[in-house]
Amino acid sequence: MKQSGQANQMRIAIIGGGVIGCLTALYLHKLGAQPVILEKGEAGRESSWAGAGILCPIHPWLYPDSFTQLIDASLNLFPAMNEMLERESGLKTEWQRSGLLIPLFADDRIHHRQNALQWSKRFAWNVEELDAKQSCELEPMISDQLSGSLYWPKVGQVRNPRMLTAIKKALAKYHVPMHEQAEVVGVGVDGQGAVANVKLANGTVMAVDAVLLAAGSWSGALARQLGLALPVEPVKGQIVLLKDKPGKIKHIIKHDDVYLVPRMDGHILVGASMERVGFKPGMTESVVNNLLESTYRMIPGLKDVAIVKQWMGYRPGSPDGMPYLGPVEGVPGMWVATGHYRNGVALAPGTAELMSRWIMGEEPTLDLSDFRVNRPIVHLDKVGFPAV
Ligand SMILES: Cc1cc2nc3c(=O)[nH]c(=O)nc-3n(C[C@H](O)[C@H](O)[C@H](O)COP(=O)(O)OP(=O)(O)OC[C@H]3O[C@@H](n4cnc5c(N)ncnc54)[C@H](O)[C@@H]3O)c2cc1C
To answer: What is the 134 CA–ligand 1 centroid distance (Å)?
Structure first.
């Protein structure tokens, strides 16, 4: 494997053209490396397209502190990354701080108030506790049955399909090679056991100095093919899209089993199921009905709003809800950045920044030991895999 002294000649195969692979490739290019993206289908069309683009974990207080530190590091990079993407692509990603509201009802299935307030204080996340009247003033369509709410005014969102298009445009501008319909089926090593090439399904063998496994939900199976144990599995999520007048719903609203994400043009994403069913395409009527019922209970006025689209995607799940980041022990040149589960868009700039520098020889500035590839498998309740 070439070291950073020869950085400008370092050829790095990125397996997977999702937000993680594509953004890391862009950052590697900016550091002078020669990344090449290998994507089995169309880049940016899997989880990274399907997600809701909320830039805050669902219930971050349920994770270890190291996860919040990684999220904070990534979110701090979002404004500059977004500015760079919009400048280099000429597109708007619709990144905005629309704020996040968690309404509180007497019959809530999950009572978050105490943990949420403590976590926000510890990590200096600006939160406001609102009574029922203030909550209804802030979000007039919400049910007046609520007893109050928690409000994080600075939480952001991004229109992730647009972010992916912007990343792809920036990659094209810099002539970073992107091969679509190019499925990686193997990684070859040299006599010392270091990465030497990648093998594609069409028989092509490409000589490389390093490989980054960023294949989303497919990473676990591909890793097994490469002789590496990586417990990443798909967790299916279904989403329903409503279309209302712009500004009727103003904030991201999260409650028990559903969240709403209002886009600038009046679209409202209603998400998302958590299903451990493997790769099983298609929508399910009962799941969609559950999402809608939960929505209408919270915001009765949305009952009359048109459903314009439905889709699903596979989150790259991990047993503890956290990504795998770093080198593979014993295989020089082999790197992993996957398993971002419910938070891959929020974690994208942090992952790209940390991984690109690490691959190029710089030690990470953050303690990433909780995210190491060979950590013990621990199933974390509520943030890890859902029950089958
Ligand atoms: C319904 C839903 C809602 C979500 N909401 C949010 C949210 O609000 N906020 C947030 O931050 N995150 C959210 N996420 C999660 C986020 O979308 C993912 O964590 C993130 O997109 C993962 O990015 P990725 O690049 O690892 O995976 P992907 O986008 O899935 O990309 C992986 C790519 O690898 C390719 N690939 C696989 N195998 C191979 C191979 N052998 N050779 C070549 N290419 C291969 C695939 O075709 C795919 O394009 C959501 C996800 C879903 C499904």
So the answer is: 37
In the chain, what are the domain boundaries?
A: 4-88+160-232+319-371, 100-154+234-317
339, 323 in Cβ contact below 8 A?
yes
- Residue listed under structure tokens 């990354």: 81
Tell how far the Cα of 303 is from the centroid of ligand 1, in angstroms.
Answer: 31
Per-residue pLDDT of the chain (388 residues; tens, 9 = 90+): 454 445 568 999 999 999 999 999 999 999 999 999 999 999 999 999 999 999 999 999 999 999 999 999 999 999 999 999 999 999 999 999 999 999 999 988 888 899 999 999 999 999 999 999 999 999 999 999 999 999 999 999 999 999 999 999 999 999 999 999 999 999 999 999 999 999 999 999 999 999 999 999 999 999 999 899 999 999 999 999 999 999 999 999 999 889 999 999 999 999 999 999 999 999 999 999 999 999 999 999 999 999 999 999 999 999 999 999 999 999 999 999 999 999 999 999 999 999 999 999 999 999 999 999 999 999 998 999 998 8
How close is the Cα of 314 to the center of ligand 1, in Å? 7
Atom of ligand 1 nearest to the CA of 313: 53
Ligand 1 pocket (Cβ < 6 Å) reads 15-21, 38-41, 46-48, 50-54, 183-184, 214-218, 222, 237, 239, 271-272, 313, 315-316, 338, 340-346
Helices (H), 258-328: 285-298
CATH class of 100-154+234-317: alpha beta
With the most atoms of ligand 1 within 8 angstroms of its CB, the residue from 26, 46, 236 to mutate is: 46
CB 212 within 8 A of CB 17: no
Q: Which fold has domain 4-88+160-232+319-371?
A: FAD/NAD(P)-binding domain (3.50.50)
Q: Say if 4-88+160-232+319-371 and 100-154+234-317 have the same CATH topology.
A: no
- Coil/strand/helix, residue 332: coil
Ligand 1 atom nearest 347 alpha carbon:
11
Q: Which two tokens stand for residue 172?
A: 């094209």
Q: Are 252 and 155 in contact (CB under 8 A)?
A: yes
First vs last C-alpha separation in the chain? 41
- 143 Cα: distance to centroid of ligand 1 (angstroms): 34
- Which amino acid residue places its CA nearest to atom 16 of ligand 1? 344
Total residue count of the chain as it appears in this document: 388
How far does the centroid of ligand 1 lie from the alpha carbon of residue 19, in Å?
A: 7
CA distance linking residue 364 with residue 356, whole number of Å: 10
